[in-house]
Amino acid sequence: MTALNVLIVVTAVVVLIALRGLVLARSRGSVLCCLRRVPGKRSWRVGVARYAKDQLNWIPLIGLLPRPRHVIVRRGLVVSGRRRVGSGEFFGFIEGVTALECRNGPDAFEIAMGYRALTGFVAWLESAPPSAYLDVA
């Protein structure tokens, strides 16, 4: 009987995590994107980016907590380069994904997204107030 209870609990947790990911991906103002820290060249992590007034909140797609794991502040954000992501770099990437090399204060990271999401990201950067310091490559 305990094995059946464990199986039910594990199944419920998996369903809740999948449902959380679906709700995050489908919510208004959210775009799917991947993020990775540059210094360690860690692997890409799939998540959802939500635009706020002057920041971009990145929430991992798979996880328990609904709060953002990374907050990217628009003021002082430096985009130093862009490149196409190869299919061998990450299993889940489809064709046409672009990675942006960014720095926000001491944090260096890459953010990868499709063409439409990239257009929205650049528009969000460029729509900063005149007093904001932006450096877009």
UniProtKB/TrEMBL annotation:
InterPro entries: DUF2550 (IPR019675). It comes from the Bacteria. It holds the Pfam family DUF2550. This is DUF2550 domain-containing protein.
